[in-house]
Amino acid sequence: MTNVTRARRQARLSRALGLPLTPKSVKYFEKRPYAPGQHGRARRRTESDYAVRLREKQRLRAQYALREKQLHRIYLDARKESGLTGESMVELLEMRLDALVLRSGFARTILQARQVVVHRHVLVDGKLVDRPSFRVKPGQTIQIKPKSQALEPFQLAAEGAHADVQASVPSYLSVELSELKSKLVSRPKRADVPVSCEVQLVVEYYAR
Fold first, then answer.
1. What is the dihedral of CA 83, 142, 164, 193, to 10 degrees?
2. Within this chain, do residues 202 and 168 fall inside the same structural domain, yes or no?
3. How many domains is the chain built from?
4. Are 111 and 161 contained in the same domain?
5. 104 and 181 share a domain?
6. How many CB atoms lie within 10 A of CB 127?
7. Whether residue 121 is found in the same domain as residue 145
8. 135-165: b or e for each residue (b if 16 or more CB lie within 10 Å)?
9. Residue 77 burial class via C-beta count within 10 angstroms: exposed 0-12, middle 13-18, buried 19 and up
């Protein structure tokens, strides 16, 4: 899949879900914020409860670029925790290594963050980790490995090149951007996670 094709696909998905998923899709979304297709401009008919819940689940899945089985597994893990299942889902998702690489400013999108991990550029507490789904624990340190830091993409990241498309660093992270190092200082709280989703509707979708 070419970069242009991927960008168009993300733009279509962004319009369908009602939120821009990548920096490149923002301009497409702003130009045509309605759903794709010839009926995209038409007013939505009254949606069923199922359709509303499905869309929220898809919104959450798209923001982390997960497969359905991956998100469902997170839901099952969240059910085992105390507290609200929906909030626990987002908190567990945010503890994924690829999500924290993105929030730290080491990548521009969640897909780039995943690629950075898979291509073996990331250390957790000094040990190489190449699984995007790796769940980082509070107190652990994430760093781009020294040999990779000289690469142009990481040099740009260290200079703050992604600041224009990212929210401010969340309170659960401590970031030393110039050193391409960050630390998960506490478990993320749903209120602090920059994700757009009605999580209770996602829980209701899976609990049906």
1. 0
2. no
3. 3
4. yes
5. yes
6. 7
7. yes
8. ebeeebebbbeeebbeeebbeebbeeebeee
9. middle
| Segments forming the whole domain that contains residue 77 | 50-94+195-208
pLDDT at position 25, please?
Answer: 45
pLDDT reported for residue 29? 47
pLDDT at 165: 82
Query: Among all chains, which residue has been given the structure tokens 């009926």?
Result: 39
- The CATH number assigned to the domain holding 153 equals 3.10.290.10
Q: Are residues 157 and 102 in the same domain?
A: yes
Q: Which token pair is 154?
A: 């990481």
* Residues 126 and 152 placed together within one structural domain of the fold: yes
- Positions in the chain short of pLDDT 50: 4, 21, 25, 28-29, 43
Q: What is the pLDDT of residue 28?
A: 46
Assess whether 182 and 205 both reside in one domain: no
Measured distance CA(167)–CA(131) in Å, rounded: 24
Contact 21, 13 (CB under 8 A): yes
